[in-house]
Design a protein that fits this description.
- The active site is at 104 (for sulfotransferase activity).
- Belongs to the sulfotransferase 1 family.
- The chain has 347 residues and is an alpha/beta fold.
- It has a single domain (93-340), classed as Rossmann fold (3-Layer(aba) Sandwich), CATH 3.40.50.
- The protein is built from 14 helices and 11 strands.
- It has a 5-stranded parallel β-sheet.
- The model is unreliable at 4-13 and 37-87 (pLDDT under 50).
Length: 347
């Protein structure tokens, strides 16, 4: 048997015993790695063929659209078979916390900042499960989630949930203990930002001023326009409070997320029951973009700012229209402050 093996491996019989053993060990290791790589590749192929379809894309311009194509491309790609093997420990779980809103409030920034924390694992792209893909079922939704170890939190963010009438009941049905995060921003600034995003995709849309009013002469605000409607935060919150206690919802200030990101992240980490790991040392202020960036992004040693779709220059809006919008939102803002116990300083 030994002679036959020597002939197959072409090992000289006269080779010293120690060297022969080392050579045999090296060859056996090589064969083992070859078999392992082959197996991992075929297993990944089978898994890919049986994987669920990606979330359905929203029609262009659909109200509540938040995630740009650039952000979708920036979402984590599928890992290679080998890295999947080494990183495949853990379990796919339904999210324990969800960033439910609001569009153009700062949800992408919050999620990117949170992903620096070692105990937070989040989906890159917006799943839109509770508004667009609910019929696919919880098993489909769970399969979108990253694997987590014991003690880690699974998260996702889809800002359109906040204004989706069915979302609160659906999330409560999944888990009444789900922690909810809402990033809010001055509703007038938010509406202009929302319009700016749409304008970048459809340059021929009517002016902001003309879309704001049903009748500009009478000054009647068109609340059916999604850019206006989303900012009536108190109205949407009432729907959520039918299913979740106010203490289970954290309200993050979009303005303070820019001026004091570490302070707001401290509140979020406390709310999620996480150790305060993300601090001032993780941020620097980018004067060109006008908002904070990460000194080191998740899984990288390089600084990271959000993409070019964030921090767009807003068009000049007639100040009379801006003032009318402020007057319109004021009573809703006051009610929102009372409901949340927080004064966001928008007036």
């Amino acid at each position: 048997m030994g002679q036959r093996l020597n002939r197959c491996l072409d090992v000289p019989v006269a080779l010293p015993p120690l060297r022969r053993r080392l050579l045999l060990l090296f060859i056996m290791l090589f064969l083992w790695l070859y078999m392992f790589y082959s197996c991992a590749g075929s297993c990944a192929g089978l898994a890919a063929r049986g994987s669920p379809a990606p979330p359905r894309a929203a029609p262009p311009g659909e109200p509540g659209e938040e995630s740009s194509l650039e952000e979708q491309r920036a979402a984590p790609e599928a890992a290679s078979p080998i890295s999947s093997f080494f990183n495949g420990s853990g379990t796919k779980r339904l999210p324990q916390a969800i960033i439910i809103g609001v569009k153009k409030g700062g949800t992408r920034a919050l999620l990117e900042f949170l992903r620096v924390h070692p105990d937070v694992r989040a989906v890159g792209a917006e799943p839109h499960f509770f508004d667009r893909n609910y019929e696919r079922g919880l098993a489909w939704y769970r399969d979108l989630m990253p694997r987590t170890l014991e003690g880690q939190i699974t998260m996702e963010k889809t800002p359109s949930y906040f204004v989706t009438k069915e979302a609160p009941a659906r999330i409560s049905s999944m888990s009444k203990g789900t922690k909810l995060i809402v990033v809010v921003r001055d509703p007038v600034t938010r509406a202009i930002s929302d319009y700016t995003q749409t304008l970048s995709k459809k340059p021929d849309i009517p002016t902001f001023e003309s879309l704001t009013f049903k009748n500009r002469t009478t000054g009647l605000i068109d609340t059916s326009w999604s850019a206006i409607q989303i900012g009536i935060y108190a109205k949407h919150l009432e729907n959520w409070l039918l299913y979740f206690p106010i203490g289970q919802i954290l309200f993050v200030s979009g303005e303070r997320l820019i001026s004091d990101p570490a302070g707001e992240l401290g509140r979020v980490q406390d709310f999620l029951g996480l150790k305060r790991i993300i601090t001032d040392k993780h941020f620097y202020f980018n004067k060109t973009k006008g908002f904070p960036c990460l000194k080191k992004a998740e899984g990288s040693s390089k600084p990271h700012c959000l993409g070019k779709t964030k921090g767009r220059t807003h068009p000049d809006i007639d100040q009379e229209v801006v003032q009318r919008l402020r007057d319109f939102y004021r009573p809703f803002n006051m009610k929102f402050y009372q409901m949340t116990g927080q004064d966001f300083g928008w007036d």
